[in-house]
């Protein structure tokens, strides 16, 4: 259903590649959907070329489908292959047709959580030679020529070794590509404002599926950024349903009773559709609100960009559309336009 291995290049509908090209580098299948799924679906639907690079097959993941428990790394060790199919289904739900595995499927193995013996597997991504892995990503950059790159912050958002390594590889690749004159114009890192986390804590409260049970204050969570450090708030509420469908495609990893799904059940799928980023490189474009947040990852780029009209390659296979519900309710969009200067 998706072209995994061989692609002729950026999607060329009538000769011309889409003007807006977005590259995402993620560690495992499911990360793309959970942290950036709405952004991916939003830009794909608007005719941008969205390229997803996944660095491992996620072989070490927990399995939440009892009938598939035998696929586990310690059993048949078939989870990675199974997750290739889950990822393909997720990409279809997101309307993303350009997906690759870094170095080809199976080149790098899920390293497992930090400190486990799986970190030392010969193919563990954590042990990957940085320049080799970055070189594989540069090859993709030469072909796709993305203006915007999305990956994680130096802590991999939450500290998983493969996420940290994905950050390192993506940043090194951007550096190498820049030396060739083809580096991305902007680099974003996934982020969550502390205020959104605080609102989530409050919203879930004492419910049984509160993912933060026992946590009283957003400040106590190991992730989350001050509002002033956020550069972009992407309102992709129109793609919240696509994100929810993509997460459902990762059934071995995200059980049906997961709090990720209960967000959609309790607050509407569109509430999944607001995603945040910090800007790691490139100039911040014009923004709005108290913190001057950009509402478009391509904001301020001087590269000629296409109109955002739904072009001939716009997806029509994104299941459902949440419609234009206003905002997530969780994100503070201040209305006094103060300078967002210096936000990185
Ligand atoms: Zn992951």
From TrEMBL:
Keyword Zinc assigned: yes
Catalytic reaction equation(s): 1D-myo-inositol 2-acetamido-2-deoxy-alpha-D-glucopyranoside + H2O = 1D-myo-inositol 2-amino-2-deoxy-alpha-D-glucopyranoside + acetate
Region span, Disordered: 302-344
EC class: hydrolase
Residues involved in Zn(2+) binding: 28, 31, 163
Keywords assigned by UniProt, alphabetized: Hydrolase, Metal-binding, Zinc
Pfam families with a match to the protein in the record: PIG-L
Compositionally biased region (Polar residues): 303-313
EC number(s) given by UniProt: 3.5.1.103
Biased composition regions of type Low complexity, renumbered to the chain: 328-344
InterPro entries noted in UniProt: GlcNAc_PI_deacetylase-related, LmbE-like_dom_sf, Mycothiol_biosynthesis_MshB
Cofactor detail note: Binds 1 zinc ion per subunit.
One Gene Ontology term of the molecular function aspect: N-acetylglucosaminylinositol deacetylase activity
Domain of life per record: Bacteria
Co-factor requirement: Zn(2+)
UniProt family annotation: Belongs to the MshB deacetylase family.
Function recorded in the entry: Catalyzes the deacetylation of 1D-myo-inositol 2-acetamido-2-deoxy-alpha-D-glucopyranoside (GlcNAc-Ins) in the mycothiol biosynthesis pathway.
Family annotation (PANTHER family): 1D-MYO-INOSITOL 2-ACETAMIDO-2-DEOXY-ALPHA-D-GLUCOPYRANOSIDE DEACETYLASE, N-ACETYLGLUCOSAMINYL-PHOSPHATIDYLINOSITOL DE-N-ACETYLASE-RELATED
Annotated protein name in UniProt: 1D-myo-inositol 2-acetamido-2-deoxy-alpha-D-glucopyranoside deacetylase
Species in which this protein is naturally found: Micromonospora zhanjiangensis
């Amino acid at each position: 259903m998706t072209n995994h291995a061989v692609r002729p290049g950026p999607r060329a509908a009538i000769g011309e590649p889409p003007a807006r090209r977005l590259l995402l580098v993620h560690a495992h299948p499911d990360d793309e959907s959970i942290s950036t799924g709405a952004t991916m679906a939003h830009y794909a639907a608007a005719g941008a070329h969205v390229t997803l690079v996944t660095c491992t097959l996620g072989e070490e993941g927990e399995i939440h489908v009892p009938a598939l428990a035998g696929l586990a790394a310690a059993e048949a060790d078939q989870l990675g292959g199974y997750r290739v199919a889950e990822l393909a289904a997720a990409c279809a739900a997101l309307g993303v047709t350009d997906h690759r595995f870094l170095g080809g499927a199976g080149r790098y193995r899920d390293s497992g959580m930090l400190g486990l013996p799986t970190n030392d597997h010969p193919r563990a991504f954590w042990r990957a030679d940085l320049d080799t892995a970055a070189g594989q990503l540069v090859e993709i950059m030469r072909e796709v020529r993305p203006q915007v790159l999305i990956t994680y912050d130096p802590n991999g958002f939450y500290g998983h070794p493969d996420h940290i390594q994905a950050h390192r590889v993506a940043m090194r690749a951007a550096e190498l590509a820049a030396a060739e004159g083809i580096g991305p114009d902007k680099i974003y890192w996934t982020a969550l404002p502390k205020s959104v986390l605080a609102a989530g804590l409050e919203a879930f409260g004492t419910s049984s599926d509160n993912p933060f049970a026992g946590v009283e204050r957003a400040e106590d969570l190991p992730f989350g950024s001050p509002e002033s450090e956020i550069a972009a708030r992407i309102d992709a509420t129109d793609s919240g349903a696509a994100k929810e469908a993509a997460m459902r495609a990762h059934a071995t990893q995200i059980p049906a009773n997961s709090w990720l799904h209960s967000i959609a059940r309790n607050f509407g799928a569109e509430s999944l559709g607001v995603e945040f980023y910090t800007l790691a490189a490139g100039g911040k474009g014009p923004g709005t609100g108290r913190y001057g947040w950009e509402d478009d990852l391509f904001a301020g780029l001087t590269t000629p960009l296409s109109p955002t009209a739904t072009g001939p390659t716009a997806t029509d296979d994104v299941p459902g559309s949440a419609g234009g519900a206003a905002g997530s309710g969780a994100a503070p969009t201040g209305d006094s336009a103060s300078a967002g200067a210096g936000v990185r």
